[in-house]
Amino acid sequence: xxxxxxxxxxxxxxxxxxxxxxxxxxxxxxxxxxxxxxxxxxxxxxxxxxxxxxxxxxxxxxxxxxxxxxxxxxxxxxxxxxxxxxxxxxxxxxxxxxxxxxxxxxxxxx
Length: 110
Fold this sequence. Notes:
Elements: E1 11-14, E2 19-24, E3 37-44, E4 50-52, E5 59-63, E6 66-71, H1 73-77, E7 83-92, E8 95-108
């Protein structure tokens, strides 16, 4: 399973705003990593865990190795928590990696 080409990041989402982030997954020589599936799991402090997935249209595969996280203003307005953690869970060639990247996530009013 390839694990290179993706950096950890700290997400700061402005409540009521549009949030977009592109992830480019590449191997050691810069070739795109094709995944069987990928999603971002969020565990907010004080709220129930949830996922942004291809199925719910929030985390989409744009092209080989390129994924976009797209949250609308309505999506971010609905976030009632202020902080938490996230991880990107992927499956590559049938092998699961439940935590390809992970980090902190914040929601702010400004």
